[in-house]
Amino acid sequence: MFRRIRNTLLLVALALSVTSAGMGFYPSSARAYHTYEERILDTTAYSLARRRVRLGLMQLSYGIIDQLQVTTFTMPWILGAIFQDVAPNVALKSTFYDRRRLALSVGAGFLTGTIEQPDDTKIRYFLIPVSFAASVRINSDFSTHFGARFTAVNGDADSQPEGTAVEGAVVVDFLQLWGMAEWRLSRVVAFTFTVRWVPYVSDLLVEGTLDAGNPAIGVQLEADLSKLQNAFALIPGFVFSWDRANIRLGVGYSSFFVDGFYLVIPGDVLSNVSPEFDIFVRF
What we know:
The protein has one domain: Beta Barrel (Porin), CATH 2.40.160. Helix content is 11%, strand content 57%. The chain has helices at 2-24, 74-82; strands at 53-56, 59-65, 68-73, 89-99, 102-116, 122-137, 142-159, 165-184, 189-201, 204-211, 217-223, 232-241, 245-254, 256-258, 263-265, 273-282. The strands form 2 sheets. A 12-stranded antiparallel β-barrel has the order 1-2-3-4-5-6-7-8-9-12-13-16. Strands 14-15 form a two-stranded antiparallel sheet.
């Protein structure tokens, strides 16, 4: 099944690459965001201008002022609803410096939610991501983007199996680095190549109590997450931009970096396919 999905995605990417190559050499007067003023926002240091709105499949954003945007990711809300508990999330991004060829930004946010298991176990999680990004405009057609994100994950679990009660707290931290090259083939089409890497993941630390009578017993467990360390993804893709509608599509290799949850799925889970997809409008 995963092999069939991977082959289909690769065929779609190949077809779009051929189409975009032709479109790239065809002049277009469409008002798109592949201009000096309008920029790709994801994986870059740029943010929405004041009172601009982005409504998309993966995220919703609003420009509070020219240097500050607020975003909420849709996937945590959807998955939270499926698991009978919403997952509120907010991310702020500020382009505090944008002069000539260089732009710099910082960002921070939070994500929280609860997962309920059939055995009445409740797992609550709280993520705090902090990020920094830099964008360099080499010329009118080519730009490079670099960034880092540190995510602190905290959580707690409450389980009451028959005759016992277990409570505990979970802590894990990880660092993600990325780089992206952007080549504007036209005002409608831009080619992107993104590299993501996880150079550091802390061990999963669980501290709690086991209450099977009197007194309660303290428990401390440590899990090895070294499998996620040095996780990476190589993702070629395209961004299509028309008057208001936009599509971002890419298919890459190795681990899958989950936007909105700020986490990483090991490559062997999805047969080393790392998709990148979004549809949105900006106005």
